[in-house]
Specification:
- This protein is globular.
- It has a domain of about 200 residues: Rossmann fold (3-Layer(aba) Sandwich).
- Strands 6-7-8-3-9-10-12-11 form an eight-stranded mixed β-sheet, with helices on both faces. It has a four-stranded antiparallel β-sheet with strand order 2-1-4-5.
- By secondary structure, the chain is of the alpha/beta class.
- The protein contains ten helices and twelve strands.
- Bound molecules: iron/sulfur cluster (SF4).
- Iron/sulfur cluster binds next to loops.
């Protein structure tokens, strides 16, 4: 593995729950609880889990669009949790985000040219003429034409709008892109085109990706390693092929057995995921998955398993392996 680009340690985000006449704090939602992982230069780390598992909150915290409650985020050897707004702006040039819904994230009153120019203006990059040139070049890079520059977001299809979202993220030539469900709002036929574009751009610009999604099929396609989150914690992390071919955590096994395999000859042992996701405001004691796990033991109800390396590069948080 190459050098680390981003190191996350013991990251937490607790949202307060308030109630009563004086809006007193009466509890908290543990959206992200003790998350630790590293992203290496040039790789794609997929993060998967059901909705409400904390994956999107994690993505936003890495850019400090949401402030962490506790923990450390080190980007290129610099701790970013304590940076001032001004210092943070410099770092954000190198870390950009692609959102799920490009329509909601693109200003409907601005032309594509203005949308793409904006990050350059914010970071004080280039003269007006140079910025314009960069916008036209970037449109070509993401498979759009220069004639698209004067159009507005509503004049594009969903796939084209996501290309604009990707182009905007690339304008400052970042090192890390955090893509939060970037293809889940698109038709299946368009998803592959956008994923292929992301892969091509990764090679062309030497990008590192954190790819957040609930769809395990999509994540496998693009990721070198995959981390599985459950109720705000990472429960398994491994190389993509290892995770998909020999998952260890019962939650990962259940998620994978729900993914349809287009081969009528293929037989797999199905492990159904029963019960609803417990509330992060009141997570189960011990292993947070114990209320839905068919392999649950007594220790699981009282003691929280920690994420441990059980084989080289394969981390699991489960008492079956500890
Ligand atoms: Fe299941 Fe226990 Fe492992 Fe949790 S720790 S996943 S309850 S076996």
């Amino acid at each position: 593995m190459t050098e680390p680009l981003l190191q996350v340690k013991d990251l937490k985000k607790y949202f307060p729950i308030t109630g009563g006449v004086f809006s007193k704090k009466i509890g908290e939602v543990k959206a992200v609880d003790d998350l630790t992982f590293t992203v290496y230069k040039g790789e794609t780390l997929g993060i998967v889990g059901e909705s409400g598992c904390g994956k999107s909150t994690t993505g936003r915290m890495l850019l400090r669009l949401i402030e962490p409650t506790e923990g450390s985020i080190v980007f290129e050897n610099q701790e970013i949790t304590n940076l001032s707004k001004q210092e943070l702006r410099k770092v954000r040039r190198d870390m950009q985000m692609v959102f799920q819904d490009p329509f909601a994230s693109l200003n409907p009153r601005h032309t594509v040219e203005k949308i793409l120019e904006e990050p350059l203006v914010v970071h004080g990059i280039g003269s007006k003429q140079e910025r314009k040139k960069k916008v036209y070049e970037m449109l070509e890079v993401v498979g759009l034409g220069s004639y698209h520059a004067k159009r507005y977001p509503h004049q594009f299809s969903g796939g084209q709008r996501q290309r604009i979202g990707i182009a905007r993220a690339l304008m400052t030539r970042p090192k890390l892109i955090i893509a939060d469900e970037p293809v889940s709002a698109l038709d299946v036929s368009i998803q592959a085109q956008v994923l292929n574009l992301l892969e091509d751009l990764q090679k062309e610009f030497g990008l590192t990706y954190i790819f957040i999604a609930h769809d395990l099929g999509v994540v496998r396609h693009i990721s070198d390693r995959v981390g599985v989150m459950y109720l705000g914690r990472m429960v398994e992390l491994a190389d993509s092929d290892v995770l998909y071919e020999s998952p260890k955590h019962p939650y990962t096994k259940a998620l994978l057995s729900a993914v349809p395999i287009p081969d009528p000859e293929y037989q797999q042992e199905r492990q159904l995921l029963t019960g609803d996701l417990p509330s992060p405001a009141n997570p189960p004691k011990g292993c947070a998955f114990h209320t839905r796990c068919s392999a649950c033991m007594d220790i699981c109800k009282t003691t929280r398993p920690t994420l441990q390396e059980v084989e080289k590069g394969h981390y699991v948080a489960c008492h079956l392996y500890q």
